[in-house]
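Retro notes (design track)

What went well: tokenization of the new backbones is finally stable.
What didn't: we kept losing track of which sequence belonged to which structure.
Fix going forward: every design gets posted as structure first, then sequence, in one message. First example under the new rule, 1016 residues:
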């Protein structure tokens, strides 16, 4: 049987009931499965035309999700044409009968091996507006059985609403949900309700391409799921390739953005180099000018010193002469005066030195405080006064604890997801829980291939859960093994106390499953199931299983099924979804906690820095006040010391000579005053010239000592010194290049930088070869330098970040490329397997086609593996012999249309013969007799009968009057539709003749068929 046959599984269609579908009545129509059924009737003109047979077949094809309705693509919109319409029914417009807004197609499916217990009812609702087609289902019979046609039509809505717990199933999912992978129905309908497309069942097969024929045969042979599996694997690979392509595209976009950022960073780095080179050139020029000014200043200094010395000598002479004269005239006790003067000088020196030392200590403290303040300014600028440093520290500690807790929760959620994923894998493999693992251990370690988990091989119908789940609860972790391996299993699991080992009877754990009272099980478990049914009595209120011998009860009412692989897989998948949702919530909480921690750390640094900067500011103010108070005192002390020194010199001089000639002193004084006047005039001239030299201005430009200036003036690489004008031009051009970095695309500068550019032009216009007051370089350079300094940390951080991001991105791209390569290798292996399987299936179809064709036939098969999203192309070219000795001729060659139709039907039958796995299929052939001669007709009808019985395919074929007599010899059932008059809104009740050797199917539908019929 097919691996996935949907909810209907291997059940066969046994009855159909319609409501507001065309002119059909609500009387149920019985279907005998696995046989050729002739469909005919009588229309208003006496022949079968207009009897409603095509409408019925169309309704059945919708019910069975015939691929030609294309339900997945258009939502079943075309099927809405099946609804009852007064104009189509020929009613008089004056009656104002409204079209049916919706209608229903109900059907009963059953398994031949257990008809009553396996019965399943499917309802399909067709509406005039979206959603056009929906489906619901329920176990057992759920059909309209009222006495009249109108009552049954009204009953339909209530029956549909009662199926809320099962659906609705959308048109897109209807085919796969109800019938699985392989198509349950293939039809050719002579109707305008759906778009006409070439079909193997129509006379238009010659219009089909080999590719279309290949797809149809693969579906009929039950191999479409193979291509669907490959398509899913290929889509996974394409998704990976798409992720890789998107990642590579995103990487290119990101790299372009990063390159733009790096280009801007490089431009600023170049600007720093230009500014540095400009500063160096200007400093060298300033050094040259400073040395030139300094040399002239030195010359004038020597001159001034010489003239000062001369003046001082003359002044000293004058002073000495005056002093001497006064001393000689006024001096009395010279020795005591000298001693007293020396004591005064010593006291004044000590006072002065003490004040200077105190000021030096305060200055050193000032420098230390300023350095500390500057280091804290960046962090302190973000502090607005709150919170306090103490509160910020409390907030930081709380954020650290919060993030650690969030990380722990996230890690625990990751572990839960991993465990849930493993549980899903185990459930799908039939290894759920402890029993699954122990059964796997028996298979791998003890070599007991038939060991299975008991819960995995049992299935309980929904309505029987309260009966069997309390009985089975004690065995939910039990293991079943073949009876001959029971002893070996017990011995192998002796280290697992409490393990339950169930020995299956010789009937085995494989093969067709048995069923009893709603439970399905391998035949080898019959003793266990029968024993549980005998020993444990099920009682209600509450639902339970009682062991009367032990006086023990097991309560039922479990929220979820406890046995059955599908139930265990669904529970594991629900647990996985819950774990994944918890992990997503935990990851979000961790990101929030991390962000809060970063904010708390930044706030803590800012608060501590802000409070410290405020304290430093107060202390600097105190230092400034102390220095301001000391400076006047130091000046006074210096004056006192100088005066004391002069007094000591005078006292010593007076003491050294006494009673000299006052007259001689007077003459000296007169001559000294004349020489002093001349020396003073010459010294004034030198001072005037020296004061005009711009030494300090050029000194400020280099910002260093004379040695620094001399070092800067040394020619680079031993070459000649650069000329001042060249150095000025180099400095101005470098400054211009640095400023240009900040120009916009339109060449504009910000207002402050525009001012700097004007200062640069003024700077560039000065004369470098003249010893004049300089235009300072920093007038233009300071703002540019500050701008570049402001970008320095950002540029460094951004470059490092970009390098780190690029490394991570390249690592991720590399991993994606590895995953794509692995997926491509795996896909090739899957495609190799599928190509072998499908080719074998088509060879079987070809063999069956050769056996069914009158003179032999064959299929030419070629496959083109898919490239990208394109489907796998299987091209099949049917060829057949038109005479016993003729060669094989392609179906595209002109041929008798009747022969083409016969061979097309035989090709479909050959595909059905090649697939023995899918049961319950229905083949619908409208206008079966068109273009068939008498001989061909009987051959086709006989083939239909044989294939229907051999493959258990239900074949519904409409038979015109000319075909009906031949069809009677081969059909197993006749369905007859009657539309007596064109003015009748509805048909008369549908009549059915047939015989079903399986009496259970007759009993299942008998009461329903008889209900509401006023005649037989």
């Amino acid at each position: 049987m097919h691996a996935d046959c949907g909810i209907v599984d291997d059940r066969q269609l046994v009855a159909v009931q319609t409501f507001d579908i065309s002119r059909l009545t609500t009387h149920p129509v019985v279907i005998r499965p696995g046989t050729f059924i002739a469909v005919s009737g009588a229309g208003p003109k006496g022949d079968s035309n207009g009897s409603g047979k095509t409408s019925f077949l169309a309704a059945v094809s919708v019910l069975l999700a015939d691929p030609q309705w294309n339900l997945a693509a258009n939502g079943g919109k075309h099927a809405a044409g099946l609804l009852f319409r007064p104009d189509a029914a020929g009613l008089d417009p004056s009656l104002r009968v409204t079209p049916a807004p919706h209608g229903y197609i109900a059907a009963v499916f059953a398994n031949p091996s257990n008809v009553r217990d396996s019965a399943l009812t499917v309802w399909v609702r067709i509406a005039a507006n979206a959603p056009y087609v929906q489906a619901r289902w329920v176990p057992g019979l759920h059909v309209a059985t009222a006495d009249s046609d109108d009552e049954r039509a009204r009953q339909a809505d209530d029956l549909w609403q009662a199926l809320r717990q099962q659906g609705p199933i959308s048109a897109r999912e209807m085919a796969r949900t109800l019938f699985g992978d392989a198509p349950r129905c293939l039809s050719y309908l002579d109707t305008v309700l759906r778009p006409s497309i070439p079909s193997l069942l129509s006379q238009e097969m010659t219009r089909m391409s080999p590719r279309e024929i290949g797809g149809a045969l693969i579906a009929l042979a039950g191999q479409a799921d193979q291509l669907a599996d490959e398509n899913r694997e290929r889509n996974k690979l394409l998704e990976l390739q798409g992720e890789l392509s998107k990642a590579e595209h995103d990487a290119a976009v990101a790299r372009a953005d990063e390159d733009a950022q790096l280009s801007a960073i490089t431009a600023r780095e170049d600007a720093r180099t230009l500014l540095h080179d400009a500063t160096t050139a200007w400093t060298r020029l300033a050094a040259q000018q400073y040395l030139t000014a300094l040399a002239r200043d030195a010359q004038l200094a020597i001159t001034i010193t010489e003239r000062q010395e001369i003046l001082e000598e003359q002044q000293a002479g004058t002073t000495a002469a005056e002093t001497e004269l006064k001393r000689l005239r006024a001096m009395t006790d010279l020795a005591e005066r000298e001693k007293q003067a020396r004591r005064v000088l010593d006291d004044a020196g000590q006072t002065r030195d003490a004040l200077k030392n105190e000021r030096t200590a305060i200055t050193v403290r000032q420098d230390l405080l300023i350095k500390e303040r500057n280091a804290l300014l960046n962090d302190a600028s973000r502090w607005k006064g709150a919170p306090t440093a103490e509160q910020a520290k409390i907030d930081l500690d709380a954020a650290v604890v919060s993030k650690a807790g969030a990380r722990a929760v996230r890690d625990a959620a990751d572990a839960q997801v991993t465990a849930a994923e493993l549980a899903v894998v185990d459930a799908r493999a039939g290894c759920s829980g402890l029993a699954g693992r122990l059964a796997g251990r028996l298979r791998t370690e003890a070599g007991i291939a038939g060991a299975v988990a008991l819960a995995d091989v049992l299935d309980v119908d929904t309505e029987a859960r309260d009966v069997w789940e309390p009985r089975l609860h004690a065995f939910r972790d039990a293991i079943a093994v073949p009876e001959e391996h029971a002893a070996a299993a017990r011995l192998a699991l002796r280290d697992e106390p409490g393990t339950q080992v169930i020995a299956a009877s010789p009937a085995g754990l494989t093969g067709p499953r048995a069923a009893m009272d709603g439970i399905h099980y391998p035949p080898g478990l019959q003793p266990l199931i029968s024993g549980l049914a005998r020993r444990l009595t099920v009682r209600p209120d509450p639902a339970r299983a009682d062991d009367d011998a032990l006086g023990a009860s097991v309560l039922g009412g479990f929220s979820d099924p406890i046995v059955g692989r599908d139930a265990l897989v669904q529970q594991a998948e629900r647990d996985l979804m819950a774990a994944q949702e918890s992990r997503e919530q935990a990851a979000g909480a961790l990101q929030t906690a991390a962000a809060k921690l970063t904010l708390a750390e930044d706030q803590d640094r800012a608060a501590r820095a802000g409070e410290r900067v405020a304290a430093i500011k107060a202390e600097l103010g105190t230092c400034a006040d102390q220095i301001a108070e000391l400076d006047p005192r130091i000046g006074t002390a210096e004056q006192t010391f100088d005066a004391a020194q002069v007094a000591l010199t005078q006292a010593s001089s007076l003491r050294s000579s006494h009673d000299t000639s006052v007259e001689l002193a007077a003459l000296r004084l007169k001559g000294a005053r004349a020489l002093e006047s001349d020396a003073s005039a010459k010294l004034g001239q030198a001072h005037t010239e020296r004061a005009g030299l711009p030494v300090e201005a050029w000194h400020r430009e280099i910002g260093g000592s004379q040695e620094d200036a001399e070092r800067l003036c040394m020619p680079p690489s031993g070459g000649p010194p650069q000329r001042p004008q060249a150095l000025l031009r180099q400095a101005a051009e470098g400054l211009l290049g640095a400023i240009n970095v900040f120009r916009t695309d339109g060449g504009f500068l910000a207002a402050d930088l525009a001012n700097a550019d004007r200062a640069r032009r003024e700077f560039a216009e000065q004369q470098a070869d003249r010893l004049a007051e300089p235009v300072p370089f920093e007038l233009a350079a300071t703002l540019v330098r500050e701008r570049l300094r402001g970008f320095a940390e950002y540029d460094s951080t951004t470059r490092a970040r970009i390098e780190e991001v690029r490394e991570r991105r390249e690592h991720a791209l590399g991993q994606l490329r590895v995953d794509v390569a692995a997926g491509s290798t795996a896909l090739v292996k899957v495609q190799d397997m599928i190509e072998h399987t499908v080719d074998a299936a088509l060879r079987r179809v070809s063999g069956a086609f050769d056996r069914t064709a009158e003179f032999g036939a064959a299929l030419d098969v070629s496959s083109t593996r898919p490239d990208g999203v394109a489907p796998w192309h299987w091209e099949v070219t049917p060829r057949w012999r038109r005479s016993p000795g003729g060669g094989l001729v392609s179906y595209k060659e002109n041929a008798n249309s009747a022969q083409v139709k016969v061979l097309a039907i035989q090709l479909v039958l050959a595909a059905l013969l090649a697939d023995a796995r899918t049961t319950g299929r229905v083949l619908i052939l409208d206008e079966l007799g068109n273009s068939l001669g008498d001989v061909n007709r009987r051959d086709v009808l006989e083939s239909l009968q044989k294939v229907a019985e051999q493959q258990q395919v239900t074949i519904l074929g409409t038979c015109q009057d000319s075909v009906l007599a031949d069809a009677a010899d081969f059909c197993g059932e006749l369905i007859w539709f009657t539309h007596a008059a064109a003015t009748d809104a509805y048909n008369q009740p549908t009549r059915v003749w047939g015989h079903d050797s399986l009496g259970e199917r007759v009993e299942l539908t008998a009461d329903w068929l008889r209900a509401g019929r006023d005649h037989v």
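Added context from the reviewer: The two ends are 39 Å apart (CA to CA).
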